[in-house]
Amino acid sequence: MLCCSVSFCISDEAAAIDMDPVELETLYGIMESLSSDQDWRAAYPNPCQPGSRWPGIECRFTASDARFHVTRMDFGAFPNPSCRSSAGFPSRIFLLPYLESVFVYRCFTQSPTEISFPAKRNFSGSPLQQLSLRSNSALVGRIPPLVSSLKSLQILTLSQNKVTGEVPAEIFAMRTLLHLDLSYNLLYGAIPAEVGNLVNLVGLDLSYNKLVGPIPSSLGNLRNLQKLDMSSNSLNGTIPATFRRLNSLVFLALSNNLMGGDFSTAIPGLQNLQYFLMDDNPIFASLPAEIGQLKKLEELRLSNSGYSGSIPASFSELTNLSTLSLQNNRLSGRIPGGFANLSRIYHLNLSRNSLEGAVPFNASFMKRLGRNLDLSENPGLCVSPSAGIAGDDFGVDAVCGRGGITVKKSEATSSSSTRPIILLVLLVVVYHVSFSMIY
Ligand SMILES: *[C@@H]1O[C@H](CO)[C@@H](O)[C@H](O)[C@H]1NC(C)=O
Ligand SMILES: *[C@@H]1O[C@H](CO)[C@@H](O)[C@H](O)[C@H]1NC(C)=O
Ligand SMILES: *[C@@H]1O[C@H](CO)[C@@H](O)[C@H](O)[C@H]1NC(C)=O
Ligand SMILES: *[C@@H]1O[C@H](CO)[C@@H](O)[C@H](O)[C@H]1NC(C)=O
Ligand SMILES: *[C@@H]1O[C@H](CO)[C@@H](O)[C@H](O)[C@H]1NC(C)=O
Ligand SMILES: *[C@@H]1O[C@H](CO)[C@@H](O)[C@H](O)[C@H]1NC(C)=O
């Protein structure tokens, strides 16, 4: 039994229900242009018929005309129809009057083809809600502005193709859009300020393209935005202060761009942020203490970005943090003692900075992080002999002497030379002299 709507149930054995001849012919045209898995006309005279339905399509029975209509098509990956090497973009999909979703995955891989629309035909009535063309290495050319005439489109996914050119401004007039994913393509140019018109957007992914210029401050209008990924482009400028209005944002990735300067004004207000990934940018400012207000943060990655000054003590308030990556910056001062209280952290990398003083962790902290703690290449860090932890497990080979003076463990334990011993005695003397001078 196939139950199609509240009041219609059609038995598998029922007499074949004819499809609309125009729709059927369009369907054969699409199938034949994409797939030579079989002789579709001969094998499937009635592609929607229950029991002998085509692989990769879904149909719906509509009572008003007592016919089946195609609502979804899937191509490219088993069990869906495979694509032949000469497959070209099936622009006739935009003429199917009931089609709501199209998925084309790893289909156009050999003959270059472009997204196109039927010539001289009116497709503005297309009910298409989801268009997903993913991992098609031979899908080239520009995004046609006509995409914006699909008035029902909610999800547009063009990820991992070879689409190029600037993102047409018309796309940013599509207020129905909930998800826009143009990642891993060859798109270039600046991101137009009109992106701020997509007020219903929940997810925006423009990562891994060649986009330049600043992040438009109009993005602050996208109050429903939960995921924003613009990593691996050539964006510059700073995070606009308007980002503080993005209080639905859960995931923000801006890694591997050319962004610089202080962005602390953008931070308060991002109260739902759980992932903040911004490695590999020429920031060259201090770490914004405001990040400590983002209590839901689980992953914070700010490595390789020229941050200087000390690690704000407020970071110790990020009690849900599981990953903190601050390696390869110019951070100085001590590791905040409160880091020892980060009870959910399991990956902490502070290597390649200029941090100093005693490592504030104890044996149970060490046991939890194991090899995921990296404090190496901070020449000023030392391990207190009383802490009960082995510094070489996480890249610190100095032990703390009295008064914060550090002594290289390898030298302190060396017995073949008396020089380190003399040095140690000298330092202790200096320490006592300066101590008695103060008091
Ligand atoms: C296309 O069809 C819509 C109705 O579905 C109509 O409003 C519109 O004027 C038509 N456009 C053209 C160019 O014929
Ligand atoms: C940002 O990049 C654009 C385009 O490459 C350039 O014109 C502009 O001068 C850059 N701005 C800054 C602040 O670096
Ligand atoms: C921390 O994570 C736990 C478990 O996922 C969650 O219940 C809690 O609300 C989070 N705390 C904050 C401040 O978001
Ligand atoms: C760790 O947390 C405890 C309990 O909240 C607090 O008393 C202590 O001062 C904290 N330690 C540091 C170094 O912040
Ligand atoms: C290690 O430090 C944490 C946090 O300060 C504390 O809760 C825990 O009791 C300490 N464990 C040991 C074995 O000292
Ligand atoms: C920490 O970062 C350094 C520098 O990028 C890297 O080489 C190292 O593998 C990282 N350590 C861990 C434990 O992830």
Task: Provide a descriptive summary of the structure in words.
- With 439 residues, the protein is of the alpha/beta class.
- Among the domains are: 18-130 and 138-154 and 167-174; 296-401, Alpha-Beta Horseshoe (Leucine-rich repeat, LRR (right-handed beta-alpha superhelix)), CATH 3.80.10.
- It contains five helices and 28 strands.
- The protein has helices at 21-34, 40-43, 363-369, 409-412, 419-438; strands spanning 2-5, 8-10, 57-62, 67-75, 101-105, 113-114, 130-134, 139-140, 155-157, 164-165, 179-181, 186-190, 203-205, 210-214, 227-229, 234-236, 251-253, 275-277, 299-301, 308-309, 323-325, 330-333, 347-349, 354-358, 373-374, 380-382, 398-400, 406-408.
- The strands form six sheets. A 14-stranded mixed β-sheet has the order 3-4-5-7-9-11-13-15-17-18-19-21-23-25, covered by helices on one side. Strands 10-12-14-16 form a four-stranded parallel β-sheet, with no helix packed on it. A four-stranded parallel β-sheet has the order 20-22-24-26, with no helix packed on it.
- A hairpin with a 5-residue loop joins strand 27 and strand 28.
- The termini are far apart.
- The model is unreliable at 1-14, 412-431 and 433-439 (pLDDT under 50).
- The structure holds 2-acetamido-2-deoxy-beta-D-glucopyranose (6 copies).
- One 2-acetamido-2-deoxy-beta-D-glucopyranose binds next to loops.
- The site of one 2-acetamido-2-deoxy-beta-D-glucopyranose (NAG) has 4 residues, from strand 14.
